[in-house]
């Protein structure tokens, strides 16, 4: 062996070989502002870790498509799955399939109610009951414990919508002076929320405050309120503290939002998926805390 060959061989032996873990990230809907923040965080974290590679797949809010994407990833021997589930049904089917195949699974943001799936499924999200409670508690306080409230729900098959609504109703149950006069699903969408609130107002419904399960629907409600000439007369609360939501809180159009750290959820979910792919321990519920956003601190959250 020549001296050069010996040096090259020594260098190769001394260089650590990284076995790249291929992780498949199934997103419920690209184009959703909050989910896009999570995707950006995951992509950024993956770039800084040479042991991980991530492919992002868009289910486009179609449960059947998400199931097919997940089954394809499992068949391709993905080291782990990360999923923002479209529905509890798609989550349950993929949890069972991943469990049988021994593929670790991390649910992100939307926490479906499913079984243990072989003990390999973990959940990275914020506690949505807390978001609903925090939001409604401030609304009740601002109304002085007297008045009428309407609720705009997200998609009824998603845990985030169910629990945010339930958390709000817990506060209403202990507030005898507040009446829930209307509630409807607007599927997380601004336009649907605007149309729903416009219909409520056109029908003569007396509403003092609207609690929306996310900022997009809150912004739709605000648009309907302004169109009806009722600016400043109906309180509106959102959740997620998106860029537009925080701006609306800062301007006074929105009473509050509840900051859900999308970036932390994304980076933590990838970290958990990476550990699981290597056989390391990860706690089953990895909570990311909520934070209240009001006019006084909106500037701080506008840059987060």
From TrEMBL:
Protein name per UniProt: D-threitol-binding protein
Segments forming domain Periplasmic binding protein: 23-280
Family: Belongs to the bacterial solute-binding protein 2 family.
Gene Ontology cellular-component annotations: cell envelope
Stretch forming the signal peptide: 1-19
GO molecular function: carbohydrate binding
Record's subcellular location: Cell envelope
Record flagged with keyword Signal: yes
InterPro entries referenced in this protein's UniProt entry, alphabetically: Peripla_BP_I, SBP_2_dom
Keyword terms of this UniProt record: Signal
